[in-house]
Structure formats: structure tokens, C-alpha cells
Design brief:
five-stranded mixed β-sheet; 13 helices; Rossmann fold; Nucleotidyltransferase, domain 5; alpha/beta
């Protein structure tokens, strides 16, 4: 027998009260053959998604299915079950192994990602399980579990292509998070390739951003600059998202050369003519440092790599003020003046989306409401 399994999981808080839903359809999706839903206590989104998959495969096996098509809106689970992504987080290793053991009992099995809106049946079941555990009655109109998880989100995680650009397909969404406070940022000193840690305030900022991001649905990867302040900020979010941090060297901050550690006024006094030229010419390098044009070259390289490796997904990118401004510049197809006119606060969030056929859009700049 050939069947279709759709599964979903949600967590209200990530980690928070969680539940899953799964439905088994006939091959033509004309008939519901089985359903499963359960509240599972406090867990992350990813754990709930895996529990939904396991429930769906268990139900398919009970029905005697031999050929199974699995459809989920969790890019992480689909890619890991397909063998394209490694499973590193300890909370997921056992669940992944359990799902693989169930999958081995079928003659044929395949996995595919679907948009959230096409996973509404399993989504509804997960939501019903969480509502029941919380003692809530069902709403008059079903609310998708993913929408509940993203109640604080500024945008749907999988937006349709913006009509003004003519883009088609699903965007790769980059959540661009600036690192938290360091001692150099307290005193407004140039902080490029130096490697100061976060201050206590910086760690609180990172934790606040992490809690906010944990409420967003569908983040598939966390990528960070190699410098400590970014890795600490990224790590806070990755822990709540049950993801690993991948380091990308091209996301490192500008090399300010001899100006590293100086204030704006001190750098201007040290090299007055060069500093004035640097403030209006992106090809100008600080003494022994790196021009903004050079930064753009490597940030564009990072952007292309991230979009290629995570096409159609939502990715958290933790970096510095200049690389993030540059990423926004690329999305806007703007001139160099934007680098001098954008302001990005510490631990602020911006969002840029890049489509496979070329167009891009900016959804958010410098959000700090969660701090």
C-alpha cells in the first residue's frame, strides 16, 4: 500500500509547552487513513517536529504501508532524514535514530519539504494537542501551530514573492543579528579584528535576542562570524533552537588596521586626511586595514554560499555592523552611501530575503523591541 504522511510539531516558547500532529492519507490524498496527536510537555520545536514524524511513521506502519511519502514544513527534519544534513544536537540524535529505524521497515520512503500553509492538517492536530494540554477550547477558526509559535514574528517565515520585484519561488530569508555589547562598544571604539568577549550587558542582550528568535518558526541554521562576540551571541540562540553554530570566515568584521581600539576622534586626529577620505570613499583602506569594498566582496561571497546551501530556508546570521549593513545594501541594490547612513544598534535584528531568480527585498531593519 502506498500512503502519504504529513507531520508537524510546535512549541510555544521553544522550549515551551509542545505537541505534535500527524496524518496518513491515501496516495491520492482523497482519504484520511489515520491520525495522531499528543502534547509532549516542555520541548523545542525541533523535538516536537521529530516526534510528529515518528508518530506518522508509526501510524503508517500500523496500516501496513509499504511505500511512504513524507511531507513536512521542517527543513531541518527533512534534510536530516534525507541524509543531507548531519544530526549533531544531542536532543535530536535519539529521535533521528528512532525515525530511521521506523523508516527502514518500509520498502520505499522519500521526504519532501512543503510550505507551512500546505501542512495545515497536521498543523491543526499539533495545535489541538497543545490547546487541550493547556485547557483551552478550540478557536472558532483553526490557528496553525506554526503561527502560534511565531506569534511575535514580524513576518511569516515563508513569505510569497513580493509583487513589485517580479521574483518567483520561495526566498532564502536571512535573519541578520548584530552581536551584543563588548567593552570596546561601550566606549564607542573601532572594534574590527580584535576579539573582546561580551560584557554582562552583552550577554543579557544575546539572551533576550535568543528568546525572541526561539519564538520564530522554521529557523534551519545558525551561521556566525568567527569572532568571540558573535559566537557567544549566536550560541545563545542556537541552544534554544537546538541547532549548531556554523562559522563563516567571510562574515568577520572590517579590519580597521591601526585604528583598532581608537575612538572616532582619535582616529581622525591620528590620520586626518585619510580618515576624511575613508568616510566618503568605500575603496579607501584604514592604515594596514581593509576597505569597505573589500568587505563587500567577501560578504557577497558569503551571501551566495548561504543561499546556495540553504535555499528556501530561514537562516540566522550573526555578524557585525559593517557586514550586516553590506548584506542589506546587497538586498536593496543600493549605492555605497547607505553604509554611512544606516544605524544598527547592538543585538539588533534586520531581515533580508534573496530569491533564486535574482530579486531581493528587505523586510526589517534594526529591530530592538525585545531588548
Amino acid at each position: 500500500m502506498k500512503v502519504v504522511v504529513e507531520a508537524d510539531g510546535g512549541s510555544r516558547g521553544n522550549p515551551g509547552p509542545a505537541g505534535y500532529g500527524a496524518v496518513v492519507f491515501s496516495a491520492d490524498r482523497a482519504e484520511v487513513l489515520g491520525e495522531a496527536k499528543e502534547a509532549i510537555g516542555v520541548a523545542t520545536n525541533n523535538v516536537a517536529e521529530y516526534r510528529g514524524l515518528i508518530a506518522g511513521l508509526t501510524e503508517a506502519a500500523r496500516l501496513g504501508a509499504a511505500d511512504v511519502g513524507v511531507f513536512m514544513d521542517s527543513k531541518l527534519v527533512v534534510e536530516q532524514m534525507s541524509g543531507r544534513w548531519k544530526v549533531k544536537h544531542p536532543d535530536l540524535i535519539t529521535l533521528h535514530r528512532q525515525a530511521r529505524d521506523l523508516a527502514s521497515g518500509f520498502d520505499h520512503i522519500r521526504y519532501a519539504w512543503i510550505p507551512r500553509e500546505k501542512n495545515s492538517h497536521a498543523d491543526r492536530l499539533a495545535n489541538e494537542a497543545m490547546d487541550a494540554a493547556a485547557g483551552l477550547s478550540a478557536p472558532a477558526e483553526p490557528v496553525a501551530a506554526k503561527a502560534v509559535k511565531a506569534a511575535k514574528a514580524v513576518e511569516p517565515v515563508k513569505p510569497t514573492a513580493p509583487g513589485w520585484t517580479g521574483a518567483t519561488g520561495t526566498a532564502t530569508r536571512l535573519l541578520l543579528l548584530r552581536h551584543g555589547q563588548t567593552e570596546l562598544s561601550v566606549h564607542r571604539r573601532y572594534s574590527g579584528r580584535g576579539n573582546p568577549p561580551l560584557t554582562d550587558t552583552g550577554r543579557r542582550q544575546a539572551d533576550a535576542a535568543a528568546r525572541y528568535l526561539a519564538g520564530q518558526s522554521g529557523i534551519a541554521a545558525v551561521i556566525s562570524s568567527p569572532l568571540q562576540r558573535c559566537r557567544e551571541t549566536a550560541g545563545a540562540a542556537a541552544r534554544l533552537l537546538s541547532l549548531d553554530v556554523t562559522v563563516d570566515e567571510d562574515l568577520i568584521e572590517t579590519d580597521f588596521g591601526a585604528w583598532e581600539g581608537l575612538t572616532f576622534a582619535e582616529a581622525a586626529e591620528r590620520d586626518p586626511e585619510l580618515h576624511r577620505r575613508w568616510l566618503r570613499d568605500t575603496a579607501t583602506e584604514p592604515p594596514g586595514g581593509e576597505s569597505f569594498d573589500a568587505v563587500q566582496t567577501r560578504v557577497q561571497r558569503a551571501r551566495e554560499r548561504i543561499v546556495a546551501e540553504h535555499a528556501g530556508s530561514t537562516v540566522l546570521v550573526v555578524s557585525h555592523v559593517t557586514p550586516i549593513k553590506t548584506m542589506l545594501r546587497l538586498a536593496l541594490d543600493a549605492g555605497p552611501a547607505i553604509l554611512y547612513r544606516l544605524h544598527l544598534d547592538l543585538a539588533s535584528l534586520s531581515i533580508a530575503e534573496f530569491y533564486g531568480d535574482g530579486p531581493a527585498s528587505v523586510r526589517l531593519v534594526n529591530q530592538t523591541a525585545y531588548l
